[in-house]
Design a protein that fits this description.
Helix content is about 50%, strand content about 0%. It has 2 helices and no strands. The radius of gyration is 24 Å and the shape is elongated. The longest helix is centred in the middle third of the chain and has 38 residues.
Amino acid sequence: MSPSAPPLGEHDEQTAVGEPSERTYLGSRDGDYRLWEARQAERIAIAREAQRAWEEKARAEAQAWAKRDAGGKAGEGEGDES
């Protein structure tokens, strides 16, 4: 049994552009445009929240490392935004 052909998306004899991105509306795949927009907005909001949480965690870890490198004790300088 041979492997299936790759999904070429729109193509001609010389060029294949691949399948449309999930961020590109495609009626046959995505259904109602307004529902698709709502799903996209929800995905963006989730990604934004995840990014914010990651940045907060990274900031806290960086501050903890800075305290360890400086030989400071836990709790010293809390609340300082330097």
